Every structure is written in C-alpha cells, then in structure tokens.
Amino acid sequence: MGEKMSEIINIENVTKKYGDFIAVDKLNLNIKKGSFIGLLGPNGAGKTTLISILIGLLKPSDGKVFIMGQEMSRNNVFLKKQIGIVPQHINLDKDLTVKENLILAAKLFRIKGKEREIQIEKLLDYMDLKKVENRISRNLSGGMKRKLMIAKALIHDPEILFLDEPTVGVDLNARRKIWDTLKVMKNMGKTIILTTHYIEEAEHLCEKIALMDKGRIFYNDTSENLKSSLGKYTVEYFDEHKITKYKYFKNIEDAKIFSSSIEENFILREVSLEDVFYNFTNRKVT
To answer: What is the residue range of the signal peptide feature (predicted)?
Structure first.
C-alpha cells in the first residue's frame, strides 16, 4: 500500500493507434513521486506521443493514465494545474519580452498581483534571465529561449514537470546550465520526466532510464543496472567487412583474450549507456 501511495503517475496498458500504425503499444509504467525519469529512444519510438497522452493532449486508443490518483483527460483542470510542460518546439511569443512572456503565462494560470510579481522575479533570478528580462524573445540565444521555456513551465509551481528534448539545439555551456537547473528542481521534490536524444544527458541527470522503441518500454532501470546487464567491458572493433562490431564481457581477462584474436584496430573500454541503447534497439523488440 505504501509503495502505491508513493507513485504519482500510473500508466496502465496504454495504446495509441493512428489507423494501422501503433505509436504506443500496451505500455505500463509507474513513476514515484520526486523521481527523475529519462525516456530514451530513437525517432519514432513513441516518446512524444506518450508525453502528449500523459499531459492530456491526446486520448489513448486504449488503457488509462492516472496522475495523483485521478484519471488524466483533456478536461481535468485540477491535474493540468499540477503539470508543467516544456515542449520540443519553441513555444514563446517571439514579439514579447522575456518578462512579458512570463506575465502572459502567469495570467493563463490566473496568478495575480503581488503573487505574480514575486513568482516572476524569483524565476528570472533562478533561471539567470534577469539581465535579459526586457529583451524581445526572438532576439534570445537558443539556450536563453530554452531557459525561458522552463521558467514558463514553472510559473504555477507544478508538482510534475514534463520536458520533451529540452536542450535540443543549444550549445554545450547552455546545456550544462539547464542540467544544473533540473538537478535543483529534483532536489526540491519535483517529479521530472525527460525525453532526450542525448544519452549523456539521461545518464547525468536521471535516476532511472526507460528505454523506448516501437511504442514499448523494453527496459526500465538505473543507468548502472542497465550497463551491468550487458557486461562491464566493451570491445569495439572492425570485422572483415570493415563494419564496426561490439562485443561485451563481464570481466577484463575475457575481453583481453578476445581482443588478442582481432587483426584490425580495436578499442577496449568500459560499457556505456550508449552500448546498452545500441544493443537493445538493434535487437528485435518482442
């Protein structure tokens, strides 16, 4: 019972079909309150479709989503107030300033007067946007735009934050700053669900990683457990057709014995999360 109480999101047998195409396929996942989950998968895996279902934007063809014990639907106003959303595509009013974008977001959630002023000032400081508060948002750098989108999503102090590719198109420095912000939010007790193409991002931020392909989550565990399920060492080498191959080993001795038989160049290294992802997405998912 205690375990169930700690879960903030329950996805029960959710399927989403578009004609004959199955975007999400009989998916089950439970997410604990205060956890940071990374949803990792190739293009077309169903990540964005799943997020759209979780935030009530799409109705599943079958199955149900429960958040905080209530069924999510397009009309559930209470749940929508508990959720902050950072979409994949820029959702700023490009003709408004940074501060005006936040004022508009606050008005949509009916945050008024002094409370609105305090919250906006807090977010401008928190997201390091104070120095550009009067800049028209079309003139912001990619990193600043992404930070403003996160600030918008936090305007109503939501319990749950959904981020769909939040650092796509930003430089390394901006990405690292966004990572720091997300880590602080996790420490504040927020539940965060992140989709990303950047495997390093998921490994750095997320306590659990769900690997998704062809509409299914086929592995859901910590980064360390995912890696150890494959092995401890990777030998990366060319085969006779000059195609890169990977072989995984539980111990260094076996990896060295195998390596000694390779005539081409090879690399012997520790298993990475990228190895896990490559290995599983190149298998037939059943």
So the answer is: none
